[in-house]
Design brief:
The complex is a heterodimer of chains A (214) and B (226).
Chain A: E1 3-9, E2 16-20, E3 25-29, H1 33-43, E4 51-56, H2 66-73, E5 76-79, H3 91-102, H4 107-121, H5 136-149, E6 154-158, H6 166-179, E7 185-190, H7 193-199, E8 204-206, H8 207-213
Parallel strand pairs in A: 3-7, 3-8, 5-6, 6-7
Antiparallel strand pairs in A: 1-2, 1-4
Helix pairs in contact in A: 3-4, 3-5, 4-5, 5-6
Chain B: H1 4-18, H2 21-43, H3 48-89, H4 92-98, H5 103-142, H6 146-156, H7 159-184, H8 193-225
Helix pairs in contact in B: 1-5, 2-3, 2-5, 3-5, 3-6, 3-7, 3-8, 5-7, 7-8
Classes of the chains: A alpha/beta (214), B mainly alpha (226).
Protein backbone atom coordinates (compact mmCIF):
# COMPACT_ATOMS: atom_id res chain seq x y z
CA UNK A 1 0.00 0.00 0.00
CA UNK A 2 1.18 3.50 -0.77
CA UNK A 3 -1.31 5.18 1.57
CA UNK A 4 -3.38 3.70 4.36
CA UNK A 5 -5.57 5.88 6.53
CA UNK A 6 -7.84 4.76 9.34
CA UNK A 7 -10.14 7.20 11.11
CA UNK A 8 -7.74 9.96 10.14
CA UNK A 9 -8.73 13.41 11.36
CA UNK A 10 -7.10 16.78 11.24
CA UNK A 11 -8.36 20.34 11.61
CA UNK A 12 -10.41 20.10 8.41
CA UNK A 13 -10.56 16.36 7.65
CA UNK A 14 -12.79 14.04 9.62
CA UNK A 15 -12.50 10.25 10.01
CA UNK A 16 -10.86 9.54 6.70
CA UNK A 17 -10.51 5.84 5.75
CA UNK A 18 -8.74 4.88 2.57
CA UNK A 19 -6.17 2.58 1.01
CA UNK A 20 -4.25 3.43 -2.14
CA UNK A 21 -2.22 0.71 -3.82
CA UNK A 22 0.92 0.99 -5.93
CA UNK A 23 0.26 1.74 -9.59
CA UNK A 24 -3.34 2.86 -9.04
CA UNK A 25 -5.09 6.18 -9.55
CA UNK A 26 -7.22 8.04 -7.05
CA UNK A 27 -9.04 11.33 -7.25
CA UNK A 28 -9.70 13.38 -4.14
CA UNK A 29 -12.23 16.16 -4.52
CA UNK A 30 -12.10 18.61 -1.66
CA UNK A 31 -14.56 21.44 -1.87
CA UNK A 32 -12.83 23.02 1.08
CA UNK A 33 -9.34 24.08 -0.04
CA UNK A 34 -8.08 23.92 3.53
CA UNK A 35 -9.04 20.24 3.66
CA UNK A 36 -7.15 19.56 0.40
CA UNK A 37 -4.07 21.32 1.70
CA UNK A 38 -4.29 19.47 4.99
CA UNK A 39 -4.52 16.14 3.18
CA UNK A 40 -1.39 16.97 1.16
CA UNK A 41 0.46 18.05 4.29
CA UNK A 42 -0.52 14.85 6.09
CA UNK A 43 0.60 12.66 3.18
CA UNK A 44 3.94 14.51 3.01
CA UNK A 45 4.42 14.36 6.77
CA UNK A 46 4.31 18.15 7.04
CA UNK A 47 1.55 17.95 9.58
CA UNK A 48 0.60 15.46 12.28
CA UNK A 49 -2.98 14.14 12.35
CA UNK A 50 -5.13 15.08 15.32
CA UNK A 51 -6.27 11.47 15.56
CA UNK A 52 -6.31 8.23 13.59
CA UNK A 53 -3.60 6.34 11.78
CA UNK A 54 -1.83 7.27 8.57
CA UNK A 55 0.77 5.06 6.92
CA UNK A 56 2.75 6.05 3.87
CA UNK A 57 4.48 3.07 2.26
CA UNK A 58 4.03 1.17 5.51
CA UNK A 59 5.52 3.85 7.76
CA UNK A 60 3.86 6.40 9.97
CA UNK A 61 5.11 9.92 9.05
CA UNK A 62 4.25 11.15 12.55
CA UNK A 63 6.94 8.82 13.93
CA UNK A 64 9.62 9.81 11.44
CA UNK A 65 12.50 12.18 12.14
CA UNK A 66 13.22 15.09 9.79
CA UNK A 67 15.75 13.20 7.66
CA UNK A 68 13.34 10.30 7.21
CA UNK A 69 10.57 12.72 6.26
CA UNK A 70 12.82 14.38 3.69
CA UNK A 71 13.65 10.96 2.30
CA UNK A 72 9.93 10.15 2.09
CA UNK A 73 9.23 13.44 0.27
CA UNK A 74 12.08 12.79 -2.13
CA UNK A 75 10.16 9.75 -3.39
CA UNK A 76 6.94 11.73 -3.77
CA UNK A 77 6.48 13.99 -6.76
CA UNK A 78 4.04 16.85 -6.25
CA UNK A 79 2.83 19.01 -9.12
CA UNK A 80 1.34 22.23 -7.81
CA UNK A 81 -0.91 24.80 -9.46
CA UNK A 82 1.29 26.70 -11.95
CA UNK A 83 4.01 24.18 -11.19
CA UNK A 84 5.07 25.47 -7.78
CA UNK A 85 8.30 26.73 -9.28
CA UNK A 86 11.13 28.56 -7.55
CA UNK A 87 11.11 32.14 -8.80
CA UNK A 88 14.85 32.80 -8.83
CA UNK A 89 15.59 29.74 -10.95
CA UNK A 90 15.17 29.26 -14.69
CA UNK A 91 12.78 26.65 -16.15
CA UNK A 92 15.49 23.98 -16.56
CA UNK A 93 17.00 24.68 -13.16
CA UNK A 94 13.58 24.23 -11.60
CA UNK A 95 13.04 20.98 -13.42
CA UNK A 96 16.27 19.34 -12.28
CA UNK A 97 16.43 20.89 -8.78
CA UNK A 98 15.11 18.03 -6.60
CA UNK A 99 16.63 15.23 -8.65
CA UNK A 100 20.06 16.88 -8.50
CA UNK A 101 19.62 17.62 -4.80
CA UNK A 102 18.66 14.04 -3.95
CA UNK A 103 21.10 12.51 -6.45
CA UNK A 104 18.77 9.69 -7.48
CA UNK A 105 20.33 9.66 -10.95
CA UNK A 106 23.70 10.84 -12.23
CA UNK A 107 23.99 14.37 -13.63
CA UNK A 108 24.29 12.95 -17.14
CA UNK A 109 21.16 10.81 -16.73
CA UNK A 110 19.17 13.73 -15.31
CA UNK A 111 20.18 15.94 -18.22
CA UNK A 112 19.36 13.29 -20.80
CA UNK A 113 16.04 12.39 -19.23
CA UNK A 114 15.10 16.02 -18.60
CA UNK A 115 15.71 17.04 -22.20
CA UNK A 116 13.73 14.02 -23.39
CA UNK A 117 10.82 15.04 -21.16
CA UNK A 118 10.84 18.59 -22.55
CA UNK A 119 10.80 17.09 -26.02
CA UNK A 120 7.85 14.85 -25.12
CA UNK A 121 5.98 17.83 -23.68
CA UNK A 122 6.54 19.72 -26.93
CA UNK A 123 8.22 22.47 -24.91
CA UNK A 124 9.40 24.90 -27.56
CA UNK A 125 10.93 27.67 -25.44
CA UNK A 126 14.63 27.57 -24.48
CA UNK A 127 15.09 25.39 -21.38
CA UNK A 128 16.82 28.28 -19.62
CA UNK A 129 13.78 30.55 -20.03
CA UNK A 130 12.85 32.70 -17.09
CA UNK A 131 9.77 31.60 -15.15
CA UNK A 132 8.01 34.87 -15.96
CA UNK A 133 8.30 34.05 -19.67
CA UNK A 134 6.32 30.80 -19.34
CA UNK A 135 2.57 30.30 -19.69
CA UNK A 136 0.63 28.66 -16.85
CA UNK A 137 0.59 25.38 -18.78
CA UNK A 138 4.34 25.49 -19.45
CA UNK A 139 4.95 26.11 -15.75
CA UNK A 140 2.85 23.08 -14.84
CA UNK A 141 4.74 20.99 -17.40
CA UNK A 142 8.05 22.01 -15.82
CA UNK A 143 6.54 21.05 -12.45
CA UNK A 144 5.47 17.70 -13.86
CA UNK A 145 8.91 17.13 -15.39
CA UNK A 146 10.47 17.96 -12.03
CA UNK A 147 8.25 15.38 -10.32
CA UNK A 148 8.80 12.69 -12.99
CA UNK A 149 12.60 13.11 -12.79
CA UNK A 150 12.42 12.05 -9.14
CA UNK A 151 11.03 8.67 -10.31
CA UNK A 152 8.49 8.87 -7.48
CA UNK A 153 6.50 6.10 -5.83
CA UNK A 154 3.61 8.53 -5.59
CA UNK A 155 2.78 11.34 -8.03
CA UNK A 156 0.37 13.95 -6.70
CA UNK A 157 -1.30 16.55 -8.90
CA UNK A 158 -2.30 19.12 -6.33
CA UNK A 159 -4.69 21.70 -7.83
CA UNK A 160 -2.49 21.38 -10.91
CA UNK A 161 -5.42 21.47 -13.34
CA UNK A 162 -6.60 24.88 -12.14
CA UNK A 163 -6.07 27.78 -14.50
CA UNK A 164 -5.65 25.52 -17.55
CA UNK A 165 -8.00 25.23 -20.51
CA UNK A 166 -9.71 21.84 -21.14
CA UNK A 167 -7.21 20.66 -23.78
CA UNK A 168 -4.28 21.60 -21.53
CA UNK A 169 -5.90 19.72 -18.65
CA UNK A 170 -6.31 16.63 -20.83
CA UNK A 171 -2.70 16.90 -22.02
CA UNK A 172 -1.44 17.19 -18.45
CA UNK A 173 -3.42 14.11 -17.35
CA UNK A 174 -2.16 12.19 -20.40
CA UNK A 175 1.48 13.16 -19.73
CA UNK A 176 1.19 12.27 -16.04
CA UNK A 177 -0.27 8.85 -16.84
CA UNK A 178 2.11 8.13 -19.67
CA UNK A 179 5.35 9.22 -18.04
CA UNK A 180 5.04 7.80 -14.55
CA UNK A 181 6.44 4.41 -13.67
CA UNK A 182 4.00 1.48 -13.66
CA UNK A 183 4.21 1.12 -9.88
CA UNK A 184 3.76 4.85 -9.22
CA UNK A 185 0.43 5.73 -7.64
CA UNK A 186 -1.19 8.76 -9.25
CA UNK A 187 -3.21 11.00 -6.94
CA UNK A 188 -5.22 14.03 -7.97
CA UNK A 189 -6.21 16.54 -5.31
CA UNK A 190 -8.91 18.62 -6.96
CA UNK A 191 -11.53 21.15 -6.03
CA UNK A 192 -14.13 20.64 -8.75
CA UNK A 193 -16.18 17.72 -9.99
CA UNK A 194 -15.67 18.89 -13.59
CA UNK A 195 -11.94 18.34 -13.25
CA UNK A 196 -12.56 14.99 -11.57
CA UNK A 197 -14.76 13.93 -14.50
CA UNK A 198 -12.01 14.93 -16.94
CA UNK A 199 -9.67 12.32 -15.49
CA UNK A 200 -12.11 9.54 -16.41
CA UNK A 201 -10.99 7.69 -13.31
CA UNK A 202 -13.40 5.45 -11.39
CA UNK A 203 -11.83 5.81 -7.97
CA UNK A 204 -13.10 9.20 -6.87
CA UNK A 205 -13.10 10.16 -3.23
CA UNK A 206 -15.55 12.97 -2.97
CA UNK A 207 -14.93 14.41 0.46
CA UNK A 208 -18.62 14.79 1.24
CA UNK A 209 -19.51 11.42 -0.30
CA UNK A 210 -16.70 9.82 1.63
CA UNK A 211 -18.18 11.07 4.88
CA UNK A 212 -21.33 9.15 4.08
CA UNK A 213 -19.95 6.00 2.48
CA UNK A 214 -16.90 5.14 4.60
CA UNK B 1 25.73 19.36 -13.49
CA UNK B 2 26.43 20.88 -10.10
CA UNK B 3 24.62 20.06 -6.90
CA UNK B 4 22.00 22.82 -6.29
CA UNK B 5 23.64 23.75 -2.98
CA UNK B 6 26.98 24.32 -4.71
CA UNK B 7 25.16 26.28 -7.41
CA UNK B 8 23.60 28.61 -4.80
CA UNK B 9 26.97 29.02 -3.09
CA UNK B 10 28.71 29.94 -6.34
CA UNK B 11 25.94 32.37 -7.27
CA UNK B 12 26.22 34.03 -3.88
CA UNK B 13 29.98 34.40 -4.31
CA UNK B 14 29.41 35.81 -7.79
CA UNK B 15 26.80 38.38 -6.68
CA UNK B 16 28.41 39.34 -3.39
CA UNK B 17 32.06 38.91 -4.28
CA UNK B 18 32.79 39.18 -7.97
CA UNK B 19 30.16 41.80 -8.83
CA UNK B 20 31.35 43.99 -5.96
CA UNK B 21 35.00 43.91 -7.06
CA UNK B 22 34.93 47.19 -9.04
CA UNK B 23 33.22 49.06 -6.17
CA UNK B 24 35.58 47.59 -3.57
CA UNK B 25 38.71 48.19 -5.67
CA UNK B 26 37.78 51.81 -6.46
CA UNK B 27 36.83 52.51 -2.83
CA UNK B 28 40.07 50.94 -1.60
CA UNK B 29 42.13 52.99 -4.01
CA UNK B 30 40.45 56.29 -3.15
CA UNK B 31 40.58 55.64 0.58
CA UNK B 32 44.28 54.83 0.28
CA UNK B 33 44.81 58.11 -1.55
CA UNK B 34 42.80 60.08 1.03
CA UNK B 35 44.69 58.53 3.95
CA UNK B 36 48.04 59.36 2.34
CA UNK B 37 46.98 62.95 1.65
CA UNK B 38 45.89 63.30 5.29
CA UNK B 39 49.07 61.73 6.70
CA UNK B 40 51.39 63.76 4.48
CA UNK B 41 49.56 66.99 5.29
CA UNK B 42 50.01 66.23 9.00
CA UNK B 43 53.43 64.56 9.15
CA UNK B 44 55.10 65.69 5.92
CA UNK B 45 56.22 63.49 3.06
CA UNK B 46 59.61 62.42 4.28
CA UNK B 47 58.79 59.66 6.74
CA UNK B 48 58.14 56.54 4.67
CA UNK B 49 58.19 54.38 7.82
CA UNK B 50 55.47 56.35 9.63
CA UNK B 51 53.31 56.67 6.51
CA UNK B 52 53.51 52.95 5.83
CA UNK B 53 52.88 52.04 9.45
CA UNK B 54 49.72 54.19 9.71
CA UNK B 55 48.42 53.08 6.32
CA UNK B 56 49.10 49.43 7.08
CA UNK B 57 47.44 49.66 10.49
CA UNK B 58 44.40 51.50 9.17
CA UNK B 59 43.82 49.33 6.13
CA UNK B 60 44.54 46.00 7.81
CA UNK B 61 43.01 46.49 11.18
CA UNK B 62 40.09 48.86 10.66
CA UNK B 63 39.11 50.11 7.26
CA UNK B 64 39.61 46.93 5.25
CA UNK B 65 37.14 44.65 7.02
CA UNK B 66 34.75 47.44 8.03
CA UNK B 67 34.46 49.31 4.76
CA UNK B 68 34.20 46.08 2.75
CA UNK B 69 31.42 44.91 5.06
CA UNK B 70 29.56 48.17 4.51
CA UNK B 71 29.67 47.61 0.76
CA UNK B 72 28.49 44.01 1.19
CA UNK B 73 25.73 45.06 3.57
CA UNK B 74 24.29 47.68 1.24
CA UNK B 75 24.57 45.52 -1.88
CA UNK B 76 23.93 41.96 -0.74
CA UNK B 77 22.22 42.39 2.64
CA UNK B 78 19.19 43.99 1.05
CA UNK B 79 19.26 41.55 -1.89
CA UNK B 80 19.32 38.48 0.35
CA UNK B 81 16.52 39.65 2.64
CA UNK B 82 14.35 40.75 -0.29
CA UNK B 83 14.91 37.52 -2.21
CA UNK B 84 14.13 35.27 0.74
CA UNK B 85 11.13 37.34 1.80
CA UNK B 86 9.69 37.12 -1.72
CA UNK B 87 10.30 33.36 -1.81
CA UNK B 88 8.55 32.93 1.51
CA UNK B 89 5.53 35.02 0.51
CA UNK B 90 5.25 33.06 -2.78
CA UNK B 91 5.04 29.82 -0.81
CA UNK B 92 8.34 28.61 -2.27
CA UNK B 93 9.65 27.44 1.10
CA UNK B 94 6.66 25.12 1.23
CA UNK B 95 7.47 23.83 -2.27
CA UNK B 96 11.07 23.14 -1.23
CA UNK B 97 9.94 21.26 1.89
CA UNK B 98 7.47 19.28 -0.23
CA UNK B 99 10.35 18.25 -2.51
CA UNK B 100 12.36 17.04 0.49
CA UNK B 101 14.79 19.95 0.21
CA UNK B 102 15.85 21.36 3.56
CA UNK B 103 15.63 25.17 3.55
CA UNK B 104 18.64 25.40 5.85
CA UNK B 105 20.69 23.29 3.43
CA UNK B 106 19.58 24.94 0.22
CA UNK B 107 18.81 28.53 1.22
CA UNK B 108 20.69 29.37 4.41
CA UNK B 109 24.06 27.57 4.54
CA UNK B 110 25.18 28.45 0.98
CA UNK B 111 24.29 32.12 1.53
CA UNK B 112 26.12 32.29 4.86
CA UNK B 113 29.18 30.57 3.40
CA UNK B 114 29.08 32.61 0.19
CA UNK B 115 28.92 35.95 1.99
CA UNK B 116 31.70 34.94 4.41
CA UNK B 117 34.01 33.83 1.59
CA UNK B 118 33.21 36.99 -0.39
CA UNK B 119 33.79 39.20 2.65
CA UNK B 120 37.18 37.60 3.22
CA UNK B 121 38.33 37.91 -0.41
CA UNK B 122 36.94 41.44 -0.87
CA UNK B 123 38.68 42.58 2.30
CA UNK B 124 42.02 41.35 0.94
CA UNK B 125 41.28 43.16 -2.34
CA UNK B 126 40.34 46.35 -0.54
CA UNK B 127 43.49 46.24 1.55
CA UNK B 128 45.76 45.64 -1.45
CA UNK B 129 44.22 48.57 -3.34
CA UNK B 130 44.38 50.85 -0.28
CA UNK B 131 47.99 49.94 0.47
CA UNK B 132 49.47 49.98 -2.99
CA UNK B 133 47.31 52.82 -4.33
CA UNK B 134 48.09 54.93 -1.29
CA UNK B 135 51.80 54.18 -1.29
CA UNK B 136 52.05 54.82 -5.02
CA UNK B 137 50.58 58.30 -4.46
CA UNK B 138 52.90 58.80 -1.50
CA UNK B 139 55.93 57.93 -3.62
CA UNK B 140 54.77 60.42 -6.26
CA UNK B 141 54.28 63.17 -3.68
CA UNK B 142 57.46 62.56 -1.71
CA UNK B 143 59.77 61.49 -4.55
CA UNK B 144 60.78 58.55 -2.34
CA UNK B 145 61.05 55.39 -4.48
CA UNK B 146 58.17 52.96 -4.20
CA UNK B 147 60.63 50.19 -3.26
CA UNK B 148 61.43 52.03 -0.05
CA UNK B 149 57.76 51.90 0.93
CA UNK B 150 57.82 48.21 -0.01
CA UNK B 151 60.64 47.62 2.47
CA UNK B 152 58.71 49.60 5.10
CA UNK B 153 55.67 47.39 4.53
CA UNK B 154 57.75 44.26 5.10
CA UNK B 155 59.35 45.61 8.26
CA UNK B 156 56.02 46.83 9.72
CA UNK B 157 53.97 43.82 8.60
CA UNK B 158 52.39 41.98 11.51
CA UNK B 159 50.92 38.52 11.18
CA UNK B 160 48.74 39.23 14.19
CA UNK B 161 47.13 42.22 12.45
CA UNK B 162 46.46 40.07 9.41
CA UNK B 163 44.84 37.44 11.61
CA UNK B 164 42.61 40.06 13.28
CA UNK B 165 41.70 41.47 9.89
CA UNK B 166 40.76 38.07 8.46
CA UNK B 167 38.80 37.16 11.59
CA UNK B 168 36.90 40.44 11.38
CA UNK B 169 36.06 39.93 7.72
CA UNK B 170 34.67 36.45 8.37
CA UNK B 171 32.71 37.50 11.48
CA UNK B 172 31.30 40.59 9.75
CA UNK B 173 30.30 38.48 6.76
CA UNK B 174 28.54 36.00 9.04
CA UNK B 175 26.68 38.80 10.83
CA UNK B 176 25.54 40.49 7.61
CA UNK B 177 24.33 37.23 6.06
CA UNK B 178 22.76 36.07 9.33
CA UNK B 179 20.71 39.23 9.90
CA UNK B 180 19.70 39.44 6.23
CA UNK B 181 18.52 35.81 6.15
CA UNK B 182 16.74 36.16 9.47
CA UNK B 183 14.89 39.30 8.40
CA UNK B 184 14.07 37.85 4.98
CA UNK B 185 12.55 34.72 6.47
CA UNK B 186 10.64 36.70 9.10
CA UNK B 187 7.97 38.04 6.72
CA UNK B 188 4.51 36.85 7.56
CA UNK B 189 1.84 37.77 5.00
CA UNK B 190 2.02 41.10 3.21
CA UNK B 191 4.33 42.15 0.36
CA UNK B 192 4.63 45.54 2.11
CA UNK B 193 6.75 43.76 4.72
CA UNK B 194 9.49 43.08 2.17
CA UNK B 195 11.05 46.59 2.06
CA UNK B 196 10.53 46.90 5.82
CA UNK B 197 12.50 43.69 6.39
CA UNK B 198 15.23 44.80 4.00
CA UNK B 199 15.58 48.07 5.89
CA UNK B 200 15.68 46.21 9.19
CA UNK B 201 18.33 43.84 7.84
CA UNK B 202 20.57 46.78 6.90
CA UNK B 203 19.97 48.62 10.18
CA UNK B 204 20.65 45.54 12.29
CA UNK B 205 23.62 44.59 10.14
CA UNK B 206 25.11 48.06 10.50
CA UNK B 207 24.60 48.09 14.25
CA UNK B 208 26.13 44.62 14.54
CA UNK B 209 29.20 45.74 12.55
CA UNK B 210 29.88 48.59 14.98
CA UNK B 211 29.24 46.37 17.96
CA UNK B 212 31.38 43.47 16.72
CA UNK B 213 34.17 45.80 15.66
CA UNK B 214 34.23 47.30 19.12
CA UNK B 215 34.17 43.90 20.83
CA UNK B 216 36.96 42.49 18.65
CA UNK B 217 39.13 45.59 19.16
CA UNK B 218 38.59 45.41 22.92
CA UNK B 219 39.44 41.73 22.90
CA UNK B 220 42.62 42.28 20.88
CA UNK B 221 43.67 45.14 23.18
CA UNK B 222 42.99 42.98 26.22
CA UNK B 223 44.93 40.02 24.79
CA UNK B 224 47.87 42.25 23.85
CA UNK B 225 47.96 43.68 27.37
CA UNK B 226 47.72 40.25 29.03
Amino acid sequence: MVIEAYELSGNFLRDLNLQIQEGTEAIFVFQDRNAGEEFLQLVLGMKRPNSGILKIKGSNPAEMNRDELMELRSTTGVVFKEGGLISNLRAWENMVLPSLYHRRLSGHEIKEKGLRLLDQFGFTKPPMSKIAELTAFEKVLIGLGRAILLEPDMLILYSALEGLNPSEKESLIRYARGLKKDRTALLYILHSHEDAALTGSQKIFDFLEMQRSM
Amino acid sequence: MLNPKTEVLLRQIYFTGIQALPAVSASGLFIGLIIILLITSLAGTGSSGAITKILLWLSLRELGPFFTSLIILTRSGTAISTELATMKLNGELFYLEAMGIKAEDYLIKPRLTGVMISSFVLTVYFQLFTLFGGLYLASLLSHIPFSEYGEAIISNFSFQEVLVSFSKSLIFGLAIAGFSIWQGLSVKRAPTEIPQRATKAVTMGLFSLFLLDGIINLLVTFLKGA
